[in-house]
Amino acid sequence: MATITLKNVPDDLHRRLKASAARNRRSMNSEALVRLEQALTAHTHRDAGEAVAEAEALNDEVGKTFPDVTDASRGEGRS
Fold it and tell me: pTM for the complete prediction?
């Protein structure tokens, strides 16, 4: 595995990373790796059609789980 050394880390960023590592019961190195991985994988782009299809599928599942709530809310706010 590769090794990275970070230089000139701002004090505030260092403090926040250290606090986050403590909250998550990780070393600062592990926390930095987790955060870096999240940052680099969180921005996978989907087209709008995929996002809409996922939202509709989720809405359908919620409707099956809580039909009385979703049926009542479907007409709210519409005139």
Answer: 0.52
